[in-house]
Task: inverse folding
């Protein structure tokens, strides 16, 4: 018998520790509860891929956490938005410039039909006959996305009710990131789901083309029956997988403290796993369902998710579920770039150059939604900027930290062949925060308008772009050391709750050390920021120069800006302008001639829609720039003409 | 290959023609380029944004410019930089993308100009000896109206190809074939196959029209329908040679594109690097024009090589005697 070396024992201990650590760290159970868990669902569903039908039932346990009795229940039936072209969703889509796809066959539309609804208990009360569709937002009688069921007995505050619901549905050809194409199934917003009862009544909006979702937190225990051997990914943790012996298998997933449940299955998925580890943040098991043609991109998906968990975790707060599922959706499924609790869809392409942020950009954004949307559960119908805009800002910040430089790529030949422009490294401030989109639609809606009332095709610019720009403006104005605690405080305060815009503003204002109310009033409206230099002249006055500078507020919105004047002797003078008046003049008598003047030289105000007019120089290189770019354009035109000349 | 070599030799022996069509390409492009320059100057004004735009790429300014631009200005995108310009135009050509009206108008004028000089160019290559400016423009004038008549047929055929066949292939068939495809590579292969189908049809049409022009010039044909029939007959009788030569010329085209992909300059600065970049780009334009001329010259050489008398041109040398008065003065 030989004596073991102490180093061997230590090595064994490390190995054991690593093996323990490598086990799934969660079962989906979270104790103590992080959320009110007042809307919990136990669902049993069977997918028939051949007929694209789902047959399902659920038991909802709902607790009235408001101060008022509930006399009815309101359910979202989202899939009825794609029942035909008369729903509010489809009407808004058409209004926004996306007409109904004429190639959509009759069997590619969706529906969800509730066949039974009962109050559960020893003496069930059948409410099926009393269900009716309502349209609280626009009165559209053709819309069937909200179902109201009057209760025979009101549920008092604090009271609980269990409801049994049975339904059938047809899976649509993918639309709005949901449905099936080929043998790829992405099933989201798919079950009859309660709205949110507030003290003012039910908050249960119709499905709109430009907005997303809102629900209460709860526990989800979901059993899904699909063809055996098909990999499946879902919200939560797989607790059990049972082969039914008839070519199907049932997967049971469980998760506490989430407000939605989505799942996907396809025989084509490759399954990869990895782990996120960090010195101060909890570990996260990552599971990736990957398209075979992207098999070389697994690490890129994991790295982007790691970057998100790291930076969001350090900046805002930890990701608390211990696991995350990344779904790489099938080509042209349209399912990419969407968030669900503990699961999200990324999106890549077959040809994905290394220094272009596909798939990293969308992966960071959707993983980031686990924080802004998943854990901070704002109402996306009414205040989508609270998750989409905040998350766009956070995405741009993360990408700048983890994936710089990233270059512009343009895709040619039907969008398949990328070409990378290494002259153009995309900037966080304007490209990441999407300034061009905001500039185009800046006046389309006031941000304070409920999101579902935004004009369908331009709402995204207000929700995503404008918010990212004004948050980054705040960062540049106050400093990250001030903004970061504001955001982490907002995150920790409103985690597993439903914040409203004022909750963010009321968190930010006292912590900023300034009165930000005027700024918030501006960004919540639709006024546009545009400061510029109107005139700069520097005239000889004996042995000195008299410099006259006029700066102007061209836009309606007001923001304090710096004005920088640079003189030929290198002297730089910075003025502070409160930006309130329409214009302001500055006069200097200096021994040196002025060279240039700039409004907002540090580019604090990223919402300024016209950056070109922000500066003026007395030694412009306009001619050189114009000559160079017209020469470039000339070559493009010559090449264009040569293409046409092939036909002669 | 001998026709290709002969065609290259004929093009190289007539550098003035290459220089002429390059000048034509440049001159027709200049007005719009100058208009763009004016628009850049107006938009930039005395802004410091011009500094970064001059030194490299000011992408913020580019986007700001294009946001307020319309018409030709809307084409000022990053894709004009370097090899992106070639990809952009090839992609737009094969995908039948819409260009602003000013671009279409300029291209139309350019094509008409090509129609005008086509007779002179083909006559020069067919004779394989210098014809002088008089001879060149005389032949151009003689054949211009004939080629205009041919262009009507060309226009009908190309309209059919682009407005009907292309639309059917890419707007009807392609979506139908890829309706349930979930693998991008598969969809790309489908699209590639359709590109090949469309490209083959386009190449067939180009081949016929090229030989119609060659036969019109070499045989001094007045009937363009007759020239088309004769071209079809020639291609039918010499299918492998004609198609092989076309393929070899197309390979030359691809070689030029590939070389430019390697050397195409990026944005660069506004000083010497701008002029170097412009010179490289103009060399590329020259190479593209050279390939186009080699197409015509080699096709002419092939046709003539299959005649009893290679180098034959039916029409008399287009050199007019001076008028009697001029002769009297000279006497």
Result:
């Amino acid at each position: 018998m030989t004596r073991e070396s102490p180093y061997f024992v230590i090595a064994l201990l490390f190995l054991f520790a690593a093996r323990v650590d490598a086990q799934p760290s969660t079962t989906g159970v979270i104790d103590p509860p992080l959320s009110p868990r007042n809307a919990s669902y136990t669902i049993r569903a069977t997918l028939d891929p051949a007929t694209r039908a789902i047959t399902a039932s659920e038991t909802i346990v709902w607790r009235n956490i408001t101060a008022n009795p509930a006399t009815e229940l309101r359910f979202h039936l989202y899939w009825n938005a794609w029942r035909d072209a008369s729903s509010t969703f489809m009407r808004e889509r058409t209004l926004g410039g996306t007409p109904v796809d004429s190639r959509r066959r009759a069997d590619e539309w969706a529906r969800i039909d509730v066949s039974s609804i009962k109050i559960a208990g020893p003496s069930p009360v059948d409410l099926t006959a009393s269900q009716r569709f309502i349209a609280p937002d626009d009165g559209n009688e053709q819309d069937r996305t909200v179902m109201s069921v009057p209760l025979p007995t009101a549920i008092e505050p604090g009271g609980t009710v269990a409801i049994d619901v049975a339904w059938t549905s047809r899976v649509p050809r993918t639309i709005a990131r949901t449905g099936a194409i080929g043998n790829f199934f992405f099933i989201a917003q798919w079950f009859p789901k309660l709205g949110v009862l507030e003290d003012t009544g039910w908050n249960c909006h119709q499905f709109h083309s430009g907005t997303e979702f809102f629900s209460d937190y709860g526990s989800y225990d979901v059993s899904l029956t699909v063809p055996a051997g098909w990999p499946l990914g879902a919200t939560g943790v797989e607790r059990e997988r049972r082969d039914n012996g008839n070519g199907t298998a049932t997967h049971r997933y469980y998760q506490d403290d989430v407000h939605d449940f989505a799942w996907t299955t396809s025989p084509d998925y490759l399954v990869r796993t990895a782990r996120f580890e960090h010195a101060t943040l909890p570990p996260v098991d990552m599971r990736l369902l990957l398209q075979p043609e992207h098999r070389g991109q697994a690490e890129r998906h994991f790295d982007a998710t790691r970057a998100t968990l790291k930076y969001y975790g350090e900046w805002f707060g930890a990701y608390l579920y211990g696991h995350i599922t990344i779904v790489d959706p099938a080509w042209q499924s349209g399912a990419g770039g969407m968030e669900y609790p503990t699961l999200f869809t990324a999106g890549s392409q077959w040809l994905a150059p290394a220094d272009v942020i596909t798939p990293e950009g969308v992966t960071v954004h959707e993983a980031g939604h686990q924080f802004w949307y998943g854990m901070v559960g704002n109402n996306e119908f009414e205040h989508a900027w609270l998750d989409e805009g905040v998350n766009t800002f956070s995405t741009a910040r993360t990408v700048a930290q983890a994936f710089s430089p990233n270059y512009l790529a343009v895709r040619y030949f039907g969008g398949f062949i990328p070409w990378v422009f290494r002259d153009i490294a995309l900037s966080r401030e304007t490209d990441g925060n999407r300034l061009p989109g905001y500039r185009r639609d800046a006046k389309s809606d006031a941000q304070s308008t409920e999101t579902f009332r935004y004009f369908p095709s331009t709402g995204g610019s207000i929700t995503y772009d404008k918010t990212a720009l004004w948050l980054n403006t705040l960062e540049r104005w106050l400093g990250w050391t001030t903004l970061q605690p504001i955001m982490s405080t907002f995150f920790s305060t409103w985690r597993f709750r439903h914040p409203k815009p004022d909750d963010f503003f009321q968190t930010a204002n006292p912590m900023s050390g300034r009165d930000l109310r005027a700024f918030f009033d501006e960004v919540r409206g639709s006024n546009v920021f545009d400061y510029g230099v109107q005139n700069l002249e520097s005239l000889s006055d004996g042995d000195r120069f008299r410099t006259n500078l006029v700066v102007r507020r061209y836009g309606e919105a007001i923001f304090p800006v710096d004005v920088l004047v640079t003189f030929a002797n290198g002297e730089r003078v910075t003025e502070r302008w409160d930006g309130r008046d329409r214009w302001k003049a500055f006069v200097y008598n200096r021994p040196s001639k002025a060279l240039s003047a700039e409004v907002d030289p540090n580019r604090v105000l990223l919402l300024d829609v016209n950056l070109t007019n922000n500066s003026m120089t007395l030694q412009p290189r306009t001619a050189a720039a114009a000559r160079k770019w017209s020469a470039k354009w000339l070559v493009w035109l010559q090449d264009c003409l040569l293409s046409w000349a092939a036909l002669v | 290959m001998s026709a290709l070599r002969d065609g290259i030799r004929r093009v190289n022996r007539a550098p003035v023609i290459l220089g002429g069509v390059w000048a034509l390409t440049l001159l027709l492009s200049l007005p719009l380029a100058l208009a763009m320059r004016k628009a850049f100057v107006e938009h930039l004004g005395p802004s410091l944004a011009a500094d970064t735009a001059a030194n490299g790429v000011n992408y913020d300014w580019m986007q700001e410019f294009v946001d307020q631009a319309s018409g030709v200005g809307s084409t000022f995108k990053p894709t004009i930089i370097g090899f992106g310009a070639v990809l952009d135009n090839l992609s737009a050509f094969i995908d039948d993308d819409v260009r602003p009206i000013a671009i279409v108008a300029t291209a139309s004028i350019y094509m008409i100009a090509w129609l005008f000089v086509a007779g002179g160019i083909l006559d020069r290559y067919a004779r394989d000896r210098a014809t002088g400016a008089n001879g060149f423009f005389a032949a151009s004038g003689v054949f211009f109206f004939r080629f205009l008549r041919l262009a009507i047929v060309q226009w009908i055929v190309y309209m059919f190809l682009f407005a009907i066949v292309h639309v059917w292939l890419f707007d009807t068939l392609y979506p139908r074939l890829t309706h349930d495809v979930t693998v991008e590579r598969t969809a790309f292969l489908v699209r590639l196959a359709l590109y090949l189908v469309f490209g083959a049809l386009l190449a067939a049409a180009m081949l016929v029209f090229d030989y119609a022009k060659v036969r019109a010039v070499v045989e001094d044909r007045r009937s363009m329908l007759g020239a088309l029939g004769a071209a079809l007959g020639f291609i039918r009788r010499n299918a492998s040679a004609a198609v092989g030569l076309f393929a070899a010329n197309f390979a030359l085209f691809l070689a030029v594109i590939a070389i430019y992909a390697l050397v195409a300059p990026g944005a660069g600065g506004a000083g010497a690097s701008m002029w170097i970049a412009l010179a490289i780009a103009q060399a590329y334009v020259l190479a593209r024009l050279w390939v186009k001329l080699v197409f015509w010259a080699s096709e002419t050489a092939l046709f003539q090589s299959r005649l009893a008398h290679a180098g034959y041109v039916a029409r008399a040398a287009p050199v007019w005697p001076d008028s009697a008065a001029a002769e009297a003065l000279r006497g």
User: Anything to note?
Assistant: Chain A touches chain B through 76 residues (CB under 8 Å). The first helix of chain A runs from residue 6 to 22. The longest strand of chain A covers residues 53-63. The radius of gyration of chain A is 28 Å.
